[in-house]
Design a protein that fits this description.
Layout (H helix, E strand, L loop, with lengths): L2 H9 L21 E5 L4 H12 L3 E6 L2 H11 L2 E4 L8 H12 L4 E4 L15 H28 L5 E5 L11 H20 L5 E7 L28 H11 L11 E4 L4
InterPro entries: NAD(P)-bd_dom_sf, Sc_DH/Rdtase_CS, SDR_fam
Family: Belongs to the short-chain dehydrogenases/reductases (SDR) family.
Keywords: Oxidoreductase
Length: 263
């Protein structure tokens, strides 16, 4: 072997990484702590229950303290108040979760609101700001707080943003525009965080059978929005979300994954 080749192998030697098997079915979240904003209902609660069943310690966050306490008693999930209008409180929320459970491995942002009772021609700045403040600004600063914690504490964690298939469709409403924003944010944060071992993805459901769109238990899930003819179910979204924040999903990064029946 020539001297140049020998020197090249010495100085360019990389860390040895043996083959490992990362996935243990039904134990993916043993020892892991997850915080889910918007976790008190709909998609967020379905994801919380899914991670809990897989062995995780899960903290659900929302604004309705009474509802959170009720779910805490009913499900065994921990709960904390987290208001996306109050971005200055996010560092404190993260510190409280860590104080209770020792660390934070997974953050899922499922908080969001729809535009209400207006169209493009009647939209006003108050309604526009209400939606954007929660759906985009709140998500941005929540990820900032989580990212600072994970980076400082060398947590090789996962962040998942619950977006919408509307984020890939023409947009005029603040809801649709905010979901377009989440696509860019997902890609930007993934690029920024990957050197620290933190992966960032989004999940983009089509219309899902939750109270956010006025669907309650016992209602029909028929829909003309996709060729399958029905709404997405929260449990279907939760199954995909669980994959993306598990060790099996660590090599998926910066992606917006649609679950919309081909919409």
């Amino acid at each position: 072997m020539g001297i140049k080749l020998r020197l090249k192998k010495i100085f360019l030697r990389r860390e040895y990484l043996p083959i490992s098997h990362l996935v243990q079915e039904n134990k993916e979240f043993d020892g892991k702590v997850a915080l889910i904003s918007g976790g008190s209902g709909g998609i967020g609660l379905a994801i919380a229950k899914s991670l809990q069943e897989a062995g995780g310690t899960v903290v659900i966050a929302g604004t309705n303290e009474k509802k959170l306490e009720s779910l805490k008693m009913e499900t065994g999930l921990d709960a904390i108040v987290m208001n996306y209008y109050k971005t200055e409180s996010f560092d404190t929320v993260i510190k409280e979760v860590v104080a209770r459970h020792g660390k934070l491995d997974v953050f899922i942002s499922s908080a969001g609101v729809h535009t209400e009772k207006v169209d493009f021609w009647t939209m006003n700045s108050d309604e526009f700001n209400r939606v954007m403040d929660i759906n985009l600004k709140g998500v941005f600063f929540a990820c900032q707080s989580v990212g600072k914690y994970m980076k400082s504490n060398k947590i090789r964690g996962s962040i998942l943003l619950v977006s919408s298939s509307r984020g890939s469709e023409p947009a005029w409403s603040p809801y649709g525009i905010s979901k377009w924003g989440l696509k860019g944010l997902t890609e930007g944060l993934a690029k920024m965080f990957v050197p620290y071992g933190i992966n960032v993805n989004s999940i983009a459901p089509g219309s899902t059978a939750t109270s956010l769109i006025g669907v309650k238990e016992g209602d029909s899930i028929s829909s003309s929005e996709n060729e399958l003819g029905r709404l997405v179910m929260p449990d279907e979204v939760a199954t995909l979300a669980k994959l993306l924040v598990s060790d099996a999903g660590k090599m998926i990064d910066g992606e917006v994954v649609h679950i919309a029946g081909g919409r």
